[in-house]
Amino acid sequence: MSSPTLRELLLDSERAQRVVVACRELVEREVAGKRGFSGAAVRTGFGVVKKLRPGVIDDAVVFLLPDFADALEVHYQNAIESGRGAGDRFARALNADTEATAEILLGVTDRRISEAGAPLQKTYRSLRKTAKGHVSAAVPGLAETLAPFVDEGVAGAVDGGR
């Protein structure tokens, strides 16, 4: 039995909700961990958005996760070639160059923002300059968040193929 793609794995009906929850918790940890003046601004803005639109993080994860998974597919495929331990190899690949991983992820949001309304596009463009640093800093957390799901998928493919 062949392994699923990263998209299939993360959006599988048995784990999709757990992936969304794990990603929401990651976003909340990352925002809470921001320090200094800019961190206070990020935390405040995030709090306002969550109050105005409850569930916004889950909605964003559900919306972007398929494209993020596709964008990270090459790292996933390289990691699963050796079977068990793939989650750790996947995490190491993402962490090997956090700036490159950030650019891969931001490439997805850059493409998707064109579908948004003008006010959101304007806001995105104003934040994009600093986004790479924030996303780069979050890559280790993302790698740690996704690694167990990669291991689950590989174990399921190996066990299911018997």
Written overview of the protein:
With 162 residues, the protein is an all-alpha fold. It has one domain. It is built from eight helices and no strands. Helix 2 packs across helix 8, helix 5 packs across helix 6 and helix 7 packs across helix 8.
Query: What proportion strand?
Result: under 5%
Low-confidence segments: none
Structural class: mainly alpha
Q: How would you describe the shape?
A: globular
Number of spatially distinct domains: 1
Mean pLDDT: 90
Q: Assign a percent range to the helix content.
A: over 70%
The major β-sheet equals: none
Q: How many strand segments?
A: 0
User: Span between N and C termini?
Assistant: 8 Å
